[in-house]
Amino acid sequence: MEMPDFWDQEADASLAARDEAAGRLAQLFRQLDSIGNHGAEGYSRFAWSDEEAALRVWFAAQMQRRGFRVEVDAAGNQWAWFGEPSAEHPGVTVGSHMDSVPGGGAFDGPLGVLSAIAAFDVLRENGWTPRCPIGIASFHDEEGARFAVACFGSRVLTGILPADRALARTDADGISVREALDGFAAKLEHVREMQQSGLDCLSDFSEAEIGAAFADSHAPEGQAADLEYLKRSAAHIELHIEQGCMQSDLGAPVAVADAIWPHGRWRVDFEGEPNHAGSTPLDRRHDAMLAFARFVQRVREEAAAAPDARATVGRVEVEPNGVNVIAAHVTCWLDCRAAKAQTVVDIVHRLGAWLAGSDGNGLENSGLKGAGLGGNGLDGVTATLTRESWTEATVFSPELRDALVQAVSAWGDDATADNAKSHGAESGGAQLAAGQSDGVELRGEQFDDAQSDTAHNGDAQSAVEQFREKESANSQAVHSAKDSEPGNLAAAHRTTELAPVIGTAAGHDAGILAESGCAAGMLFVRNETGASHTPREYATLADATQGVYAYAAAIHDCADRVAAGWRPRSVQGER
Ligand SMILES: [Zn+2]
């Protein structure tokens, strides 16, 4: 079994030895490591495979050992419950997913499930008794690697992906979801055989534990939506490795998410005229490829000039696609996303205006005249811009987001404070105050209307000051309330760091839940490389441990609030 080298690093090994949460998290990762591990090619853990069978049994065994009851919902997601949740007495749920893309990293998904387990352990070992039910979810097929639908399990459960369409999806070999579900018992049987001849991930469990775990790892009979099931949760919190580098830039080991960015996709068709690559003089060409090339450059310039925006041309088709033929027709696809929908609209509007000038009416826009490439703008090439898809921002529950910021900012870990310093940051707050707030929003009054395009405007400096004043008042109240409680980790792990609030441009199960009207929120753990969906994805054990303490703080605080009747509102969808 090859271990990912980060667990072997000296700093992580010494942290694992002296910090119980770190040691526990490292141990959980080690147990899972052999499942779908292809060494330098990363991890591949797909829907209804042997790997998923092993992961499901492992999850059930871990949770049952801790006194949780494990259930499989109508869509195939696994839920472990501590306590008896109902719509009248809902609990707090946490978790993420354990599947991967082909050749994925160790963290995207498992970090959220394993950190939830470690956080629960930390709380229990400190004498905590939850005042409301606690659920830990392992969502099925979040990456959609096999059936090409991301967040498969949460989409089916919420009804966003209708059951009949889910069952009919097929994989690359033509196997349908229906057939994969029917064949899953054989996968479990295979894992049972492997376990009997010694399977790393299950070697820690007794035969009785293994038997009970297999019983709660089955596939569902079919696929069905069950929004009633989700009423067992008053607040759902997913922890995930950041799929980007905002937190590295900020020196923030843990951040709170406010929204998944809105995004859209456009097709651009350039119509030129095919002709001979040798005999056609430059000034008599209608070259669709040249127009396309100028457009790609323009896309980058527009995105770079806009706040918190990404724009990409990643796919292109050329006709006739001959080495010695001037391109007659080029089709490309533009993907554009930003923190604010209006930013995307503005970028695409400007690109459209630029393209409209490229048919010969807007020489000043094309820039080609000055470049001496012809006296006729884009040489008579016409362009059409067509929108193919648009997805609104998914806004997480603002009340839950604020509760998470408060919980996470009040608790911390000394080791992580050292770690943050080693990243060149005194604190997240100092970074923000210094104006390095690119892509980061501060929680506060300016965000009351979370869906408003103007909600993010305002003076960052004064927002930071207001935020700090409020935060200091909040923290004092929280600290004095907590200091007398059992299960209080604040004394050992408190810092004064503020958790920044950031957006994400990637989809998550928590986003699907939010879309369907559940109060959902997210915590992110810093990704050292900023890379995702590759084995290069990387969180230090120090940061991941900070994530565990943040999760513990969030579970503790939210459970107390929910037990007292708190029901954070979702800002979208109906339940
Ligand atoms: Zn993920």
From TrEMBL:
The keyword Hydrolase applies. It comes from Bifidobacterium subtile. Transmembrane segments: none annotated. Keywords: Hydrolase. Residues 416-490 are annotated as: Disordered. Residues 265-356 form the Peptidase M20 dimerisation domain. This is Hydantoinase/carbamoylase family amidase. Its EC number is 3.5.1.87. The keyword NAD does not apply.
